[in-house]
Q: What sequence folds into this?
């Protein structure tokens, strides 16, 4: 009986691990030059600039910084050579940005 339940769980485990691997692959970006665009809810460009990211964390820091300046905006980072795209909808309130994270 115990053997059958383990066999039944294997496909579920394999599918779950495959999904996690795919999500992890989507979360990483290639370091390099990015075009960062900040848009408001009406899709108006609030700010646009190029950013040289040496790592994913430096790109995330730049995007978080834009969310602090424009808390209701959407920040889009396009990798110029590989055309990878990260998009983040800023959701924080001004009060939450003042507290240490």
A:
């Amino acid at each position: 009986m115990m053997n059958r339940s383990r066999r039944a769980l294997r496909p579920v485990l394999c599918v779950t691990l495959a999904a996690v691997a795919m999500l992890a692959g989507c979360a990483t970006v290639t370091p390099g030059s990015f075009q960062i665009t900040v848009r408001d809810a009406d899709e108006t460009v609030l700010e646009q600039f190029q950013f040289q990211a040496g790592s994913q964390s430096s790109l995330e820091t730049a995007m978080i910084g834009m969310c602090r300046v424009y808390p209701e905006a959407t920040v889009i980072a396009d990798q110029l050579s590989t055309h990878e795209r990260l998009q983040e909808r800023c959701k924080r309130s001004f009060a939450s940005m003042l507290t240490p994270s």
Remarks:
- The longest strand covers residues 45-53.
